[in-house]
Write a structure and sequence with these properties.
homodimer, about 210 residues, alpha/beta, Arc Repressor Mutant, subunit A, Rossmann fold, 2 domains, seven-stranded mixed β-sheet, two-stranded antiparallel sheet, about 20% strand, DNA-binding
Chain lengths: ~210, ~210
DNA sequence: CTATGTGAATTTATTCACAGCA
DNA sequence: TGCTGTGAATAAATTCACATAG
């Protein structure tokens, strides 16, 4: 398996494959072909095969892929083969919803700490997590938490990012509607639901 | 201005330009160059110019773009030049957060109706919107609401989509972690925060 | 005969380089 | 001189077509 540059788009699709494969596993599938998977998730079979072939040859000709094995392989590629703890900052409407969001478990994520700067919220327990004061963010250093989730208002996002980075975080999921500046080694993925909604009308039929 | 196929990626970036331009307008900018905008949002100047040039020549050589005029142009391109009403289905944790989300106003969106199937939630008022029973979804027909936001659990997402489409919705923002089937004329944009979080570890430094 | 894996062809998007206008 | 708009060049991603393996 010689070195290859992996397309970002491939990495974007792998979590989708993982989700659907997990579904097939639960339904009792032992093997699955790229064509079956394809029908389920709306991606061409050859796209799936090429994506996977970037990392080696996982399938068996004439049979397809071993579902359980493929799940393990993809988890390894995405570095999801170990439980990953995350810390969330900003326990407002959105932050609380993210704290309670059930979808992270599938990928091995666990939100293990939550912070806010509002004294009314500190001490509250949401989904078994006690909200702490933001001044406690440095304590993440001793806790093996490398992922930060930012759900604070725009004005506070940069300072929050700085605090998280100083506490050893190297990956950030940013819900603030702005870019944040971080050292090169830190990866930021931004989610902005308004941005996605804003391009919907363009694609809608006019009247 | 001859016809051109507009790249999807351009459409994805336009709402970002719009957001930042609005910021510059508030700061009192009258004109702005592609270079200034570029520094602010982390996209190359020539990318911005090419994106805009797809739709015509908006700028003035040596000066740049008239901020206010450019905002109007982009809104028109994205069909955001009129207030757009949306209906939300599924007033759980995530749905409530989306209902309260302040970021939609910038793009002229207003959530004008909310539905749930849980009798405990029906009648509740969140952000001035009274939650109605899902059986009332067909009433959207008379209300000029063409956008649906789906924040229900996975099992309910397809049936919700069907109900919305039957009520005249032609654009859907889907927060359910699955694909939904709709007629070709209906555009669906799916947001899945777990999917985005899942590709973060891949890009993070190992130890 | 079925389904993978992969080079080659094609399509799509980004970057460059520069002509031309104020 | 400064900045736009755009054809040309480059890079990236998708699609195809088929050799190959069970």
């Amino acid at each position: 398996m010689p070195y290859r540059k992996i397309p970002d788009e491939t990495i974007r699709r792998l979590p989708i494959y993982l989700r659907d494969l997990t579904g097939f596993l639960k339904q009792g599938y032992k093997n699955i072909s790229s064509k079956e998977l394809s029908g389920h998730l709306g991606v061409n079979p050859w796209q799936i095969r090429k994506d996977l072939s970037n990392f080696g040859a996982f399938g068996t000709c004439g049979v397809g892929y071993d579902v359980e094995k493929l799940i393990r392989q993809i988890k390894k590629i995405l570095k999801l083969d170990t439980i990953r703890k995350a810390a969330l900052v900003g326990v407002g409407n959105l932050g609380s919803a993210v704290l309670a969001y059930p979808g992270f478990a599938l990928y091995g994520f666990e939100i293990a700490a939550a912070f806010d700067n509002d004294s009314k919220k500190i001490g509250k327990v949401i989904n078994k997590i006690t909200v702490q004061d933001v001044s406690k963010i440095p304590s993440l250093k001793n806790k093996d938490i490398r992922i930060g989730i930012i759900t604070v208002p725009r004005q506070a996002s940069q300072i929050t990012a700085d605090a998280l980075v100083n506490a050893g975080v190297t990956g950030i999921l940013n819900f603030s509607p702005c870019r944040i500046k971080v050292p090169k080694k830190v990866k930021v993925i931004t989610i902005n639901i308004a941005l996605d909604l804003a391009r919907l009308p363009y694609y809608m039929p006019t009247r």
